[in-house]
Amino acid sequence: MYFLYSALTAAGLVLLAPYFVALGLRRGKYLHNLRERLGAVPREITARAEGAPESIWIHAVSVGETLAAVPLAERLKQRFPGVPLFISTTTATGQAVARERVKAADGVFYFPLDWSASVRRVFRAVRPAIVIILETEIWPNFLREARRRGVPVVFANARVSAGSFRRYRGVNRWLGNFVGRALGDAAAFLAQSDTDAQRLRELGAPAERVEVAGNLKYDLGPPVQSAFVAWLEEQIKQQERWPVVVAGSVVEDEEEPVLAAYDIVQRQWRRALLVLAPRKPERFGATEQIAAERGWKVARRSRLDKQGPLGEDVDVLLLDSIGELAGLYVLADAVFVGGSLVAAGGHNILEPAWFAKPPVFGPSMDNFRDMATEFLSVGAGAQVGSGEKLGKFWVRLIKDDRGRERMGRAAQELAQRNRGATERCALRITAILEEPCKQK
After folding, report:
1. Among the four given CATH numbers 3.40.640.10, 3.40.50.11720, 3.90.870.10, 1.20.1070.10, the one describing domain 2-214+420-433
2. Which value, in Å, is the radius of gyration of the alpha carbons in the chain?
3. Considering the entire predicted model, what is its pTM?
4. Which residues are CB-neighbours of 179 under 8 A, at least 6 positions away?
5. Per-residue pLDDT tens for 160-199?
6. What is the CB neighbour count within 10 angstroms for residue 98?
7. What does DSSP say about strands 316-318 and 188-191: parallel, antiparallel, or unpaired?
8. Which residues participate in catalysis according to the annotation?
9. Nearest residue to 359 (alpha-carbon basis) of 407, 391, 323
10. Tens digit of each residue's pLDDT (9 = 90 or more) over 131-153
11. For domain 227-417, which CATH number applies: 3.40.50.300, 1.10.287.3510, 3.40.190.10, 3.40.50.2000?
């Protein structure tokens, strides 16, 4: 079965090679990290690993998982200060955030393709005592190689969305519990919720290895105010721009409804300002074009002269940078968290909650299912189904100072109340690392 899986993934990569090459040439994606994805870990990683008996390896797919890894990495580094700690990611944006935000990491690299040869090269180079996978990326060859080497793999912040659950169950039906056998190679599953834990068990994870530890993202705190946020705050005050609306993590096909919502706001407040943050860098140019075609005056963050003023005629500030969005929510009078008006599963609604800003989001929140439900149940957030409804809710929220503040306080209190997953995960990981009979 593993041979068939490897053959199918290789065939898929060959078939998709022209697409990846085209993206690589046009946007600089994929080609630059291909050597690392094939197992050629950067020299600074191998040099650091060679200087110690073993290392701790944390894998985070992209930006959200990488940010969730920050407090866990810090806690593990405090507990094991002499052990090298490495972070791998799958995406380029994840790499950028890992290098900037995970100060506890001794090195950052790309996770290998799930082929036996690539996986073995990385295991030899990194020499992990443990691998911690954030959320639930199931790579059968990787898990099997870890088991063969006696390296425990822990899924921390583990979750299984409804869509993934259906797909994995289908794989199990057609391939004789293949996903279950792969999960059986892991040492522990520290699930976000009871629902995630139950889904893991139903997919074949050994029941005794599954426990609920909570969501690591609750343990993140608001970022320190950056120079850019301070500059923009001053511009807003000087120009008496109000209200400020921040639409974060906006994905493809969401730009139009978000701009339609902003149009409703601007009809009432001509001095409004929209901070629009596309989720992916490849959407920066397209988003600027869409906004400009609707008649908005657009300024890109990367082109601003921060020694001078923000243009008085700017309607939309396009945040074409990585890692600055969370800090900008502090300036917002109303927010929207994207990836939710289209079927993308939603993004992190805790970021505005840190600043007592009630998150508004769409119906597609499968990636943050339990969190969204809890926010809605205590009146700490709102869910809308279209751009028009988003605009109308923004207007209502901006006009209702008391209601907005009440929702914001509820959001902030909820975020603080659910903290503690980092410590629970760190204790479990520490117990596995210190297990005297751990296989090698």
Report:
1. 3.40.50.11720
2. 23
3. 0.89
4. 138, 168, 171, 172, 203, 204
5. 999 999 999 999 998 899 999 999 999 999 999 999 999 9
6. 27
7. unpaired
8. 65
9. 407
10. 999 998 899 999 999 999 999 99
11. 3.40.50.2000
